[in-house]
Every structure is written in C-alpha cells, then in structure tokens.
Design a protein that fits this description.
Blueprint lengths: L3 H13 L13 E5 L8 H14 L4 E5 L5 H5 L11 H5 L10 E2 L6 E4 L8 H4 L9 H5 L2 H7 L3 E5 L6 H9 L2 E7 L8 H14 L5 E8 L6 H14 L12 H5 L7 H4 L4 H14 L10
Parallel strand pairs: 1-5, 1-6, 2-4, 2-5, 6-7
Antiparallel strand pairs: 3-4
Helix pairs in contact: 2-13
The protein binds adenosine-5'-triphosphate and magnesium ion.
Length: 291
C-alpha cells in the first residue's frame, strides 16, 4: 500500500524524469500570450510553471516578461533591476531582443527576457511611436527565434488591456487565458475577448484563443465547481482538462526565485503544471513530426 511519503516520492520521480521524451517538438514554433486583464488570476504563475514544465518535456522555451512588476523575471531567478537590458529597451528599438535574453536559474533551455520597472513608462512612451502595436512582433523576428532555437515563446502580460497587452496579442498566434476558480471569474472576460477580436480583425489574422487554464481550484468549495462548469460550457474543449489546485507551495516558490517544479517537484502543483503542459503540447493542431 502507498504511504503519503511514498506517493510523494513517486510523484517527484515522475516530475524529475517525466515519461515525455517521446513528445515531439512542435512542427511550427508556438508563440502564446498569457493574458487576462483581471489582476492576480495566475497569469505569471502559469507562464513560468508551464514554461518550466515544457522544458522538462525537452522543449526550448523563452518567457517574455511584459509586466513592469517583473514577477515572471523574479520567479525565474532573473535579475531585473532598473537599467538591466530588458524588454523595455527592446520595445523602444534600442537593443536587439537577443541582447536581453538570459537563461533562468531553472534550466539553460528556459530563457527569459526580463522586465524592469522602466517598462512602467512604456505604455505612454509607445503611444507616439511608429507601429506602436507591433513593436514586440518586430523584435521577435524569425532570425532571432531561430538563433535561440526555440519551440515555445510564452508572453506574460500585465493586468490591463493597454498597449503592452496589445503588443503581446499582435506578436502571438495563440492566447492562453488563465481563469481563477472564484466568484466574478468571468467578469471582464467579454472585454478581453472583444479586444482579442479587434486585434484579430485589424492587426493579426492568426490570433485565436487556443487555451483556457483554470487556476487556484479549491475542491472544498462548491463555487469552484460552478465556475469550472460554466467555463467549460462556454469554451468547450479549449479548456484544459487539467485544473491547477490552490496550493501554498505554488505561491511560495517565486520567493525562492524558483518554479514549482524546482521548488517542490513532488507537489500536486508541480504535477498539475506538468499535466497542463502536456495537454498544450499534445494539442491536435500542433502535434506532429519532430523538427
Ligand atoms: P497580476 O495580474 O498582478 O500580474 P497574475 O495574474 O500574474 O497577477 P499571479 O501573480 O500568478 O497572478 O498569482 C497571484 C497570486 O496568487 C500570487 O501571490 C501567486 O503566488 C498566487 N497563486 C497563483 N497560483 C496559485 C495557486 N495555484 N495556489 C495558490 N496560490 C497561487
Ligand atoms: Mg503577473
């Protein structure tokens, strides 16, 4: 019979040596923007932990921190004090994106373009710039992406629908929306979907909501199930079957500059992000022969 400790050890082994090596690299590189203008729904937590999980499956991943708070940079153990070459200088066209890319402390295959507090001014500075909505797209040239040999790019958005988020939506093909399993979860979602539709109509025909991830699920509450059902009814199979549980460990990890996969590989949080990443990788549209 399994004891809890044996169970945890078994889970840790699965995380550290996932049976995922047979997973092919995507046929085409995938750029996903993680967006929801609602604050604190798990955008950053999902971005960094999915990125770390994708790396466990053998992918090369770049996280672009597009939030002046710099939370994704913190969680990946990447320096982001003011003046560090970052996404800010990249958007302004002062440096090449390559000059801002640094490896995370998590793994050499997990790269990050950090965000510094300087980015806070960008929403306003960008307004008067040429092609202000396409600055990120222009920086993410295929030469740059090829040189980094990336499979996935994940863009962590700030909690607003301003120019930074618009830049992220123009630069990606896919949007991943994290939804917190709580009251008011769906409030504001219509506005987000409208914006996505506007960007699709005018700036980026490829853009679509490919993935919905339910986060901070608390199985003890009826409400969590109600929200889950409602989201599944509305978005159908775009909602990942895996749901991220509410867990203290998940919220502690960034304090150590770590993802949950490094901080506590045997935890349910780590397993759930690994499962969610696997579902994303196995998306029928993107499954294909190895590159
Ligand atoms: P913002 O809109 O400010 O950028 P966000 O959408 O990026 O926020 P996070 O920063 O990822 O959201 O999460 C908000 C808070 O909830 C953080 O303190 C985080 O540690 C915590 N949190 C995220 N996911 C979980 C989880 N599964 N269990 C417990 N706490 C979580
Ligand atoms: Mg965030």
């Amino acid at each position: 019979m399994w004891t809890p400790i044996a169970e945890e050890a078994e889970r840790a082994t699965r995380v550290l040596h996932p049976k995922g090596r047979e997973i092919p690299r995507p046929v085409h590189r995938r750029v996903l923007t993680v967006a929801n203008q609602k604050g604190g729904v798990g955008k950053t937590t999902s971005t960094v932990n999915l990125a770390a999980a994708l790396v466990k499956y053998g992918m090369r991943v770049l996280v672009i921190d597009l939030d002046p708070q710099g939370n994704a940079s913190t969680a990946l153990g990447v320096q982001h004090t003011s003046g560090t070459p970052s996404i800010y200088e990249t958007l302004l066209g002062e440096i090449n994106l390559l000059d801002a890319v640094v490896p995370s402390t998590q793994a050499p295959e997990l790269l990050c373009v950090p965000a510094t507090i300087d980015l806070a001014g960008a929403e306003i500075e960008l307004v008067s710039m040429v092609a202000r909505e396409s600055r990120l797209k222009r920086a993410l040239t295929s030469e740059v992406l090829d040189q980094l040999d990336l499979d996935y790019v994940l863009v962590d958005c700030p909690p607003s629908l301003g120019l930074l988020t618009v830049n992220a939506l123009v630069a990606a093909e896919e949007v991943l929306i994290p939804i917190q399993c709580e009251y008011y979860a769906l409030e504001g979602l219509g506005q987000l979907l409208n914006n996505i539709e506007l960007v699709r109509a005018h700036l980026n025909r490829q853009l679509h909501v490919s993935t919905i991830l339910l986060t901070m699920y608390d199985g003890r509450t009826k409400l969590a199930d109600q929200v889950t059902n409602e989201v599944r009814e509305h978005f159908g199979d775009r909602v990942l079957r895996t749901v991220i549980p509410r867990s203290v460990k998940v919220s502690e990890a960034p304090g150590y500059g770590q993802t949950i996969l490094a901080y506590d590989p045997g935890s349910r949080g780590a397993m759930s992000y690994l499962d969610a990443a696997r579902e994303i990788v196995m998306h029928p549209l993107h499954r294909g022969a190895s590159r």
